[in-house]
Amino acid sequence: MSIKENLLAIKDTIPESVTLVAVSKTKPISYLQEAYDQGQRVFGENRVQEMTEKWENLPKDIKWHMIGHLQRNKVKYVAEYVSLVHGVDSPRLLAEINKQAKKHNRIIPCLLQVHIAEEDTKFGFNEEELLDLVDNEEFKAFKNVKIEGLMGMATFTDNMEQVRREFSSLKSLFVKLQSTYSDFTTLSMGMSGDYKIAIEEGSTMVRIGSSIFGSRN
Questions:
Q1: Dist. CA 28–CA 166, nearest whole Å
Q2: Structural domains of the chain, count
Q3: Quick one: CA dihedral 125, 65, 23, 50, positive or negative?
Q4: How far apart, in Å, are the Cα atoms of 112 and each of 1, 13, 173, 183?
Q5: Residue 217: pLDDT band with limits 50, 70, 90
């Protein structure tokens, strides 16, 4: 199947209220252009250098989402153009994004990454750390970042009940925070293998790569 057909097939399974992030990491610019020609405008990358190169070479109405673990020393390279940082996993990273956004006179939208998987390999806050952060005065003083919601990755497993449980716990936390923070509108959870369950559990944004562009290079 072609990228066009893959994209149309996936869009058929996603409600209009859910944003599709086409995960284009490791894929050539021609693949992204093909998806762009089909109307896709949101792309997700996990390497700063690769994302910047694509940003320079592709149409400027694309929204670039940083979906991988972002190192603090790399923030300065994306601050000018990034549309959403999915994986804010520490107060220090948030402070750096705020600092670099200020230099470009921008407010950078961010999601706080929550560790929901039963694996140690994933980054993110636990619930207690998250609640501490959003109550912190320093956090409230940041003027150049806008926290729009939460992001989480489920355990990589065939046990879909476990995946559902993890997504459900993230949704509960999201709702809890939403009652205090009206800006919380985005819940980014779900990838190629589990996005349908994520949507059933309340996801508003899914990150899909291999089902659009084929398996990773």
A1: 33
A2: 1
A3: negative
A4: 35, 26, 12, 13
A5: low
Q: Is the pLDDT of residue 215 over 90?
A: no
Q: Which amino acid is at 111?
A: L
Check: pTM over 0.90? Answer yes or no: yes
Task: Check if the beta carbon of residue 166 is closer than 8 Å to that of residue 187.
Answer: no
State the amino acid at position 32 in one-letter form. L
Count other Cβ atoms within 10 Å, centred on residue 142.
20
Report pLDDT digits (tens) over 50-82: 999 999 999 999 999 999 899 999 999 999 999
Angstrom distance (rounded) from CA 55 to CA 24? 12
- Residues 188 and 111 sit within 8 Å (Cβ to Cβ): yes
Tokens of 158: 């065939």
**What whole-number distance in Å separates Cα of residue 191 and Cα of residue 10?**
12
Domain that holds residue 53: 3-213
CATH code (residue 114)? 3.20.20.10
Q: Which residue has the higher pLDDT, 11 or 217?
A: 11
